[in-house]
Amino acid sequence: MTLFQYCTVFPLSLLAVWEVVNCLRRSDGRALRLLRMVTWIAAAVTIADPTFVTRAAAAAGIKRGADLVLYTFVLLGLMATFYFYARQLNLQRQITELIRHGALREARRGGIRLRPGGEDASGHSDGDSA
Amino acid sequence: MSPFTVTSMSSEENVSQQHAANDDVWVVVTAYNEEQRLGQTLRLLCAKYGNVVVVDDGSNDHTSDVAVEYPIWLLRHAVNCGQGAALQTGVHFALSRGAKILVTFDADGQHCADEIERLVAPIRAGQVDVVLGSRFLGEAVHMPWHRWVVLKLGVLFTRVFSWIDVTDTHNGFRALTRRAAEQLNIRQNRMAHSSEILDEIARHKLDYCEVPVTIRYSNDTMIKGQSSWNALRIVAQMILGRLIK
Question: ipTM of the predicted structure?
Answer without folding.
Answer: 0.84
